[in-house]
Write a structure and sequence with these properties.
Two copies of one chain form a homodimer.
Chain A lengths: L20 H8 L3 E5 L2 E4 L1 H20 L3 E2 L5 E3 L1 H6 L1 H4 L5 E4 L5 E4 L4 H9 L10 E10 L14 E11 L2 H21 L4 E5 L9 E8 L5 E6 L14 H12 L3 E3 L5 H7 L5 E16 L9 E3 L5 E3 L1 E8 H12 E2 L2 E2 L10 E5 L7 H15 L4 E3 L6 H11 L3 E5 L7 E6 L5 E4 H10 L1
Parallel strand pairs in A: 3-7, 19-20, 19-21
Antiparallel strand pairs in A: 1-2, 4-6, 5-6, 7-8, 8-16, 9-10, 10-13, 11-12, 11-13, 13-16, 14-15, 17-18, 21-22, 22-23
Helix pairs in contact in A: 1-9, 2-6, 2-9, 6-7
Chain lengths: ~450, ~450
């Protein structure tokens, strides 16, 4: 892609309404545009990052045997009356009357609807366990939407639901998802800490939230650095090994301020391992047994001919929110550097262009074609602008690798720079292999 | 995937509410489940087909340089008041009040919103032409939703918008999209006829709808068979060649009953080339110049310093509707056969299984692993059920290739069948290459 063709309305103004750095960056780099309070359009750059995150989440869900499907955004109120949550949910639920006067709503979550689908489809213990998930837009009518995509009204989320015969089986599904979440956040280039959590309005008695470290996070967290040293590769996919994995994570101190006690922290965590910082919740998993299956009468025939309520859990990852959270974790000293797995492009070529000299642009175009052939997703900055402005712009766009074609490039060697590092003079072959290694 | 693990609630009942064959098939094969009038959940089988269609549409949009982005489902009413369509749209628009009492709506289309994004981003002729598109859920509050996903309320659509400086340039964008649509429907295994059309509520003076042949279609069509003989490969991507392409299509007789005149049809189309059948609209493109850019004040600086309204077109493909339309075009004599490009699986292995003999199942599992290694997406029917029921079930699921492991399989040869054809006895190597060829 040539930058002059890319629909990327970069702005130099610092938008007044943007209080945190992800919101500022996303507006300035033309990733999103607000269309009304807490509702955004995703412009090509932002959309591309969000899609990459979505795809990694999808692959990791598929890997544990979860099956993708899709529930609609608009739901009937009937199921919510069956479960008793229609009144409970309050004003955050966007309530709608259709032209026939029927009470509808824009789904804020899907426990009721998935339970309805399940109860009309699966009757026998033989078909269990099952994990279903979807990735869909949801709506919560926040009274004060703010912080850009971090607390908006229309947001993109993966939610999964597990169905098991017994509490014991259900915990195996819970552990699988726990494992999947750790893998997912690793692949996204984020350090996520699983923390035992309260279940809130979803209900249930077992819950973890996954929190990434960022100074601008919404909650204070206290943790033992050792939690980042757990190597996922040492667990296999057996139930026993996954149970051990969750125990290993749980045995290391990590809490939000609600559960924090100074005495415990200093007793349990060595001084040099103490992490005190802020965090952003990017995922939340719940086990709530028959909380929804019971009122909705979702029954399964057991092997000995009885009927019992299916045991359920639900598992969310905020995909649009992760775009903002990734920026909060990686945008420092006015330089954004995307993790390679979710960067909008693999590399950008930045030629120094002047009106009388198009030689650098021609060199850049040659390299562009070479890299394209290798399936490297490359951006070419063909805009006629001075280099200092270009570098400032690319500090916003955040592509981790730059090939700079200017005074330092020699015959067949070019200046190659990884953001936040020193540049090197390298041959195109070395550059290719550096990019491909990641 | 093993069929016993797939979430696919197949039902033998013919659902009373389903009047057309795509609706019947999708309910019976467990592809969708209605959640309220005209609103469906997409279960794994249906979801997979829809995603494949979406991906082909996306690839073909990208190929002509269109850039993907995403607009939200919920819009403010303000822009619609600016364009004057807020009142015009009538009751099909789902109108919503949020908790602050603001008038919102669920987008039925996006001309207003994209114009707003464009006017705040692009100011100069230098940045033109641009084509932006998104693939998003939309809502039209049909008074009588019916025919399953063919006429539902919440539906999945690709809509693209082109922006040009002059009418002449805009027609070049229109031709590119025309070309892209023909390619897209070809890849989807559908025979689509472009027909000059009225512009309706979108407005403008140039429009084509793309109609596929299906006896159950909503409109009567009359066409010359020669229209299917136009070879897209003979056009290149130059403006001149694409203009010639559209002329070539337009020169061949093809109309819906509104424009049909018997005299013209018999005069212009040879008897043996006359097609009289019904058709389903699966795409619609419009050129409407400054119909929205003018009231919304979307101005572009020209090279000689003037300001003019940008010239726009819009281009839709109904993605969820295409799932139904593909069934209408391919489900005959109680046998569904998916076009290979959108089939939920590449091939299904059907072993004859009995309680006392698991040998066939073991053979099937061995073949399954072999095919998986080759990146072939294979379904294994491991359900303990007689072969006659299995075949009936797979006539519904519609996977085009079957490997049957039963009485006819020899040492290292297996019965291989393409739906609607005779079966052959083939080695696994030959089977692999047959599947991969497609």
């Amino acid at each position: 892609m040539y930058l002059s063709k890319l629909f990327i309305p970069i702005t130099k103004d610092l938008p007044a309404e943007a209080k945190i750095k992800s919101h500022q960056l996303m507006l300035r780099a033309g990733m999103i545009k607000q269309s009304s309070a807490g509702i955004y359009s995703w412009l090509p750059l932002g959309f591309k990052v969000m899609k990459k995150i979505e795809q990694i989440v999808r692959e990791e869900q598929n890997l544990i045997g979860a099956q993708e499907m899709l529930m609609p955004t608009i739901q009937s109120s009937e199921l919510w009356k069956e479960s008793g949550r229609y009144e409970d949910y309050g004003e955050e639920m966007l309530r709608i009357k259709d032209r026939q006067g029927r009470e509808m709503l824009y789904g804020p979550t899907n426990e009721e609807l998935i339970t309805d689908i399940f109860r009309s489809s699966i009757k026998s213990y033989k078909s269990l366990p099952q994990i279903l998930y979807h990735i869909q837009w949801k709506f919560r009518d926040e009274i004060r939407p703010r912080f850009g995509v971090m607390r908006c009204r229309e947001f993109f989320m993966k939610d999964a639901y597990s169905f098991d015969l017994t509490d014991q089986d259900a915990k195996k599904s819970y552990n699988k998802m726990f494992y999947s979440y750790i893998r997912t956040f690793n692949r996204l280039g984020l350090k996520a800490i699983p923390m035992s959590a309260d279940t809130g309005p979803i209900g249930g008695d077992l819950s973890h939230e996954f929190v990434i470290l960022a100074e601008t996070g919404e909650s204070q967290i206290y943790a033992d650095k050792k939690i980042f040293e757990i190597d996922l590769n040492k667990y296999d996919f057996s139930d026993k090994s996954l149970e051990k994995m969750r125990e290993d994570f749980s045995s290391i101190y990590a809490v939000t301020d609600e559960k924090y006690k100074e005495k415990d922290f200093s007793k349990n965590v060595k001084k040099e391992n103490q992490i005190k910082t802020r965090g952003i919740e990017v995922g939340h998993i719940f086990y709530f047994s028959d909380k929804y299956s019971k009122p909705l009468n979702c029954l399964i025939d057991t092997q000995d001919g009885k009927k019992i309520s299916v045991k359920m859990g639900s598992y969310g990852i905020g995909i649009s929110r992760l775009v903002g959270a990734t920026i909060e974790a990686n945008y420092n000293n006015n330089i954004m550097k995307w993790p390679k797995s979710v960067s909008p492009f693999d590399v950008v070529i930045i030629p120094s262009i002047s009106k009388n000299n198009k030689e650098n642009l021609e060199k850049a175009e040659k390299i562009y074609k070479e890299l394209k052939k290798q399936n490297i997703d490359v951006l070419l900055d063909d805009v006629d602008e001075n280099m200092s402005n270009k570098f400032k712009k690319h500090d916003l766009i955040g592509i981790p690798y730059q090939i700079i074609i200017g005074s330092k490039s020699e015959q067949n060697k070019y200046e190659f720079k990884e953001l936040n590092s020193e540049s090197e003079i390298l041959s195109l072959e070395s550059i290719k292999s550096k990019i491909k290694k990641n």
